[in-house]
Amino acid sequence: MKISRSLIVLYTSVICLILMASCKQTTINKPTVTNTNPPGPVSNVAVTNQNGKATLTYTLPSDKDLLYVKAVYDIGKGRTEEVKASSYSNGLTVIGFGDTLAHTVKLYAVNSSEVASAPVSVVVNPLTPAIVTARRSLKVVATFGGFSLTCNNPSQENLTIIPMVDTVGNGKWVQTLGMDNIYSNAPVINSVERGQPAIPRKYAFVVRDRWLNFSDTLFVTLQPLFEQLIPKSTWSNYVLPGDATLLYSYTNVQQIYDGNFNPGWPNVLFTVENAGSPQMVTLDLGKAHIFSRFQINPFLEVGNVYYVRGNQKDFEIWGSNTPNLNGALDASWTLLTTCHVVKPSGSPSGTETAADQTYAHNGWQFDFPVSSQSYRYIRIRSLQNWQGSYFMSMGEFTIWGN
To answer: Which of 40, 165, 248, 321 has the most Cβ atoms closer than 10 angstroms to its Cβ?
Structure first.
């Protein structure tokens, strides 16, 4: 007797439906035995107070079905935190404290049926939290177009520094357009905020952590220095002995001040690739300026990558008003700053993340040290490119100051 394929499919479907109807839902990893008896409590609790936190060690109870130990505590202003540690560990760390007050922590041993022991209470006295350390060391000074700030964060906590300004002098603190929070977990936090008018105003700064603990407020009156984009219409290439040899006549120095921030080949500065020592080019700005910051826009290489070949990695900026015509970097020149380009992602050579690409496309910016000295002539000296050699490629060079 022959059975059609469609009939086989029908029989199979019916059998599956019958089996599914007869099945009951089961819970994976459900304890095979329910134990309603609470486990014994932890014992021999020892406290080690740390900055903004405390580490607790203890002796576990002997219950075989012990699952974890739980700490429940108040970090202030009615906010409760909970930390759990596996039964394979004999300690845990309670975190999130924004003060150095005494805090009670309740420890519970919990079995596999989620039944908790009686609590064991201990008192912790956390040491100075990161927000207080940062606030005490916070220094803010006026700079070109805004202010620079620095503070210490030795525990490398994730901190937010919130800048505010009283725009009209009525005690109402706001964040104006372009005034952003500073986020960092660096051991020393440095940041510069720009876009502020060159008038005296009252500013306020608060440090916050990820548990929404806030420091007290730093109030300062600042008058940012006037800053403008130094116009390139008066710039020219001031060729001196020792300046780099161009790869082609058209990959010349004029390409880096033509206003094209993201040019394609061949509208770039490009020097000979067999250079065996640091290379440099010299600019005449037309008149002397005080410098605040500058920007290098690297050349987008084949493969749509920036951190390769002749683009700048380590370099120097020199200034002069009366450069020696023999081209020597002698006393007629002043070293203004030494710079190192860092990929935001820290990824290896050949790998560029979206953050790396955005940083390069927007231009690598660096601040000049604050100075009242003005300079007319600028020298860009390549110490090492991304290939590890000396030749130079660059899309655009821009300076701010007054």
So the answer is: 165
State the pairing for strand pair 201-209/218-222: antiparallel
User: How large is the average pLDDT for residues 338-366?
Assistant: 94
Considering only the C-alpha atoms of the chain, give the largest distance between any 2 of them, rounded to a whole number of Å: 109
Indicate which CATH number applies to the domain containing 73: 2.60.40.10
Say yes or no to pLDDT of 146 above 50: yes
Q: Same structural domain for residues 86 and 169? A: no
Terminal Cα distance for the chain, rounded: 100
**Domain-ending residue, one of 225, 259, 280:** 225
State the amino acid at position 77 in one-letter form: K
In whole angstroms, give the CA distance from residue 85 to residue 80. Answer: 17
Question: Which residue has better confidence, 332 or 31?
Answer: 332
How many other CB atoms are there within 10 angstroms of residue 31's CB atom? 13
pTM: 0.74
Confirm if 234 and 353 have CB atoms less than 8 A apart: no
DSSP letter, residue 33: S
Q: Cα separation of 357 and 311, whole Å?
A: 13
Q: What average pLDDT is seen over the chain?
A: 92
